């Protein structure tokens, strides 16, 4: 992963996932599920941002709430654990969402490893990383009136 | 700022009413149609489709198709200047090799707009006339000092790109006129997509630099978009006549940050954008200077 120190922008280059879903019943399908889950995890981690005001989303459209596209997908490596789930059919268990869950936290950890900034709230925006690298929170909250406290 | 209302969207039959599409053969015929007061021009149709998408009434009962008017689709290199017809699609503009050599900032900006499918439709005139401060081509055209050749039923006039808000409803942009760059000129465009996915820019900056024989800066221009009143031509008075070094780049970038007023939105806070305006001004200027300093015939 790369972080542009001048902007805070994150580029995810390569991502490896090892998934324990019990017995893999249909390997290409399971792999596709994991790849899709990683895409959604990257969206949650980096691009999807929901802003609220007076109980309503301020930008209720997909032109501002950005879903991840092929352009942000890194090179993927997907492997499955050699495992058997006794309570599941043929030893299998769910694979749909499981690979999504760790993605935001590994992106956060990779950012912390790269530039020493630990972001605790999603999405991990370039702006949060930028101010974190400069430790200028006071500058941000005083000059950015009206947007305080929205976790930018 | 869009706010989601409660309940279902209002059903308003005026928003789905068909508009008549008129296809004039000549510019004069188009201007007569527009002079009626109940007609609006349509180039690629993007703004009109977005109005429908947003459940707004059509811009007018009659839409006058202007992209196919004679000469509107031409890019012509004259002895002293270049003209780009208002009906030129941004995709064709981005792919024009003559312009890419003369003013790469313009082809880069045109090629950075939206997606390929949209660039195949959007016309340069429509993109400018939409007067959206975040649109890319007007930023680049402001930096190169382009002028809008405007025609109305009562006559012709010339506007600066930053004066597009003075276009009257019965006027059309006929073409955009760019000066020819002098020897040792470089230009570059920078568009910052903060999330790495397609969306409106966090900041967009265009730079143009002309060097004198002795290598000092003869002319310098920076334009910034996605800011209040954009595109804004940054005042760089007093920064010419020196060598194009990092001190000059830093001074010009500081002027760009100080002279523009970005707004907070989903791509970042105003404070962050001010920093990014400085950063991408530096990047655009450095690219432009490198191109100006490159020997003749190399990638400029």
Automatic annotation (TrEMBL), chain B:
**One term of GO molecular function:** oxidoreductase activity
Q: Which PROSITE patterns match?
A: FAD_PCMH
**Keyword Transcription tagged:** no
Keyword tags:
FAD, Flavoprotein, Oxidoreductase
Span of domain FAD-binding PCMH-type: 14-183
| Pfam families recorded | CO_deh_flav_C, FAD_binding_5
| Gene3D superfamilies named in the record | 3.30.465.10, CO dehydrogenase flavoprotein, C-terminal domain
SUPFAM superfamilies per the record? CO dehydrogenase flavoprotein C-terminal domain-like (SSF55447), FAD-binding/transporter-associated domain-like (SSF56176)
DNA damage keyword on record: no
- Indicate what this protein is called per its UniProt record: FAD-binding PCMH-type domain-containing protein
| Organism this protein belongs to | Streptomyces brasiliensis
């Amino acid at each position: 992963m790369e972080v542009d120190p001048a902007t805070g922008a994150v580029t995810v280059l390569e991502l490896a996932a090892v998934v324990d879903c019990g017995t893999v019943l249909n390997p290409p399908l399971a792999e596709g599920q994991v790849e899709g889950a990683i895409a959604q995890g990257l969206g949650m981690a980096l691009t999807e941002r929901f802003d609220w005001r007076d109980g309503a989303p301020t930008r209720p459209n997909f032109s501002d709430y950005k879903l991840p596209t092929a352009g942000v997908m890194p090179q993927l490596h997907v492997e499955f654990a050699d495992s058997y789930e006794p309570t599941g059919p043929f030893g299998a268990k769910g694979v749909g969402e499981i690979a999504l869950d760790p993605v935001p936290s590994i992106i956060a950890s990779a950012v912390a490893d790269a530039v020493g900034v630990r972001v605790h709230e999603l999405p991990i925006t370039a702006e949060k990383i930028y101010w974190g690298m400069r430790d200028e929170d006071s500058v941000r909250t005083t000059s950015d009136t009206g947007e305080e406290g929205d976790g930018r | 700022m869009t706010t989601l209302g409660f309940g279902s969207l209002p059903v308003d039959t005026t928003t789905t009413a068909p508009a008549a599409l008129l296809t004039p053969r000549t510019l004069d015929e188009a201007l007569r149609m527009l002079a009626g007061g109940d007609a609006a021009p349509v180039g690629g149709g993007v703004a009109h489709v977005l109005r429908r998408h947003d459940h707004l009434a059509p811009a007018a009962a009659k839409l006058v198709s202007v992209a196919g008017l004679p000469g509107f689709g031409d890019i012509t290199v004259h002895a002293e200047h270049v003209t780009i017809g208002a009906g030129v699609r941004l995709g064709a503009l981005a792919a024009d090799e003559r312009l890419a050599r003369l003013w790469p900032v313009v082809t880069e900006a045109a090629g950075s707009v939206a997606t390929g499918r949209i660039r195949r439709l959007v016309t340069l005139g429509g993109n400018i006339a939409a007067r959206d401060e975040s649109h890319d081509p007007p930023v680049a055209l402001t930096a190169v000092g382009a002028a809008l050749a405007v025609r109305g039923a009562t006559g012709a006039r010339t506007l600066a790109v930053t004066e597009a808000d003075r276009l009257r409803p019965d006027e059309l942009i006929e073409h955009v006129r760019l000066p020819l760059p002098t020897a040792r000129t470089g230009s570059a465009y920078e568009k910052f997509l903060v999330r790495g996915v397609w969306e409106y820019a966090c900041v967009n900056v265009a730079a143009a630099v002309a060097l004198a024989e002795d290598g000092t800066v003869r002319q310098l221009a920076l334009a910034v978009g996605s800011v209040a009143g954009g595109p804004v031509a940054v005042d760089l008075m007093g920064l010419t006549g020196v060598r194009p070094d990092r001190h000059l780049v830093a001074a010009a970038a500081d002027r760009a940050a100080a002279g523009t007023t970005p707004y907070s939105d989903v791509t970042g806070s105003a404070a962050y954008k001010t920093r990014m305006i400085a950063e991408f001004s530096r990047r655009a200027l450095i690219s432009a200077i490198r191109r100006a300093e490159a020997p003749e015939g190399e990638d400029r």
